[in-house]
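Researcher: Please translate sequence to structure tokens.
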Amino acid sequence: MLSRGVIHGTFMRRLAGALGVWAAWSVILAPGAAAGIADHLVISEVLVEPSGRQSDYEFVELYNPTGGTVTIGGWTIAYKSGTGTSFSTVATVPSGRVIGPYGFFLVGGGKVVPSPDVVDRSLGFNATSGHIALRNTAGVIVDKVGYGSAIDPEGAAAPSPPLTQSLERLPGASAPTMGNGQDGDNNSVDFAVRPLPQPQNSTSQEIPPFHSALVSSDAGLVTSMTQRVNVTVTDADRDNNAALAETFSITVTSYADPLGIVIPVRETALSAPNFDLLGTARLLGFTTGPSDPQTDVIQVWPSGDTATVTYRDPAPAETRTVAIAVQATEGPSLAAIDEREGIFSLLAYAIVYVDWQPDTSSRGYNIGAVLTDENDSIVYWSRNCVRASDFTHHAEAVSMQEFLAATAQGQLSRDRVYTTLEPCPMCAGMSTLAVLSRAVHGQTDPRFGGDYAALRGAGRSTPTPVPSKLHYRDDLDRLYQQSGFTSIVSFLYSDTARSVFQAAYNDLLTFAPQYQENAPVLQQARDLIATIQAGYGNACHP
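Model: Translation complete:
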């Protein structure tokens, strides 16, 4: 028999497949490291035989292009001639030594400036041809450079440097703020002759091998819901293919939609550092309906919201953002909207409380839902009826199906559902296909929740999933974790859970709105709960 976890995963795959988007699910975007930058320590600069055979001036500089500290105690510098077949150790790093992120480490003779971290006067490199290697404590070669007529380089050999000049790994002197991390496994391409050597030791300034990114938009204020905005990411590190206009993704969130959408930006021209939405022939749009990653539209409140564009810069691993204010119409403040949604959430709790089920013998689980339209009128309500009917009669599903049947609508565009428990995969899929605008939920379902995020990740437009801002959600989450129940629906039969629902019911009856525009909404909710108590007993729905 399949476990419920396996069933849940299978359901989501089938659901997303039915929606035509499962293939996109496997491309959840996580930017990788910039191409051509080593992910290990490298030999970054060497000076060989600067004057005759005076090894006191020779050096090997190491560079750490990664964001982590590397312990190099016991690592060795090894050398073999241009025609040699085996390496010999010429210097050993003492135990306990490390190279920090983007830092340097210097091994060299006593006359090298700055002072080497390890002084070794016997390096003895040949001036015209040879191989220098960095080996770890297991003797494995981590990096090597062959120069001159060397027969065993990485790729092709680097040039033999003129007297007193060094070989430096790129970008080096050509881009002094970009470190020495280039690694295409070809010494002839990765190294260049540096006329004036510049050895760096462990006290030298760290140099990250990348550019910092910038995110910008062509409008900082949206004054119309039909307005479209271009967003540009400037990041030279993402230009990794001179023959291809590359793409990667950004995330857009808002106060109305904290989950947000993931949308692509495209290189504005070959070998350019700029990537924008215009390159994809689509611009960022705004709606009070459901967000849609397919059309680059984010749900916002039209008065006082802020859309935040986020780019995760892979190198350095930092988040870059730009904010776009929304003031398209006059309307309730964000705080007033939060209060209004709180009233509907209180109503959902109250609908359950006035017909509390003490066990599994009656109607169903203690879960309720309220459906409202875009004008904040309550259009339907329901309670879980899996015992009285069948196990598809979840509260949200009943509300949607019954209201659709009663009104002969094909969809519930811009309607909103308020539930006491996070929707399961079935209800998330149904509300997505019904084109609901928002799904505000109470208690978190750790086993069967999170499905809207899965569908969004697969590129589907879904209702905006919003955890209720009421403390009752947090109370139920905490008490469930402390209860010892392994099933959330079993917990919802308990006296502990009932006390929370009772408190929410009492809150609905005594609540005093701070925003007068919400007084009619509150009265509507109170009238409905009185009607339910008077005429609907343990009914599943009207």
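Researcher: Any highlights?
Model: Confidence is low (pLDDT under 50) at residues 1-35.
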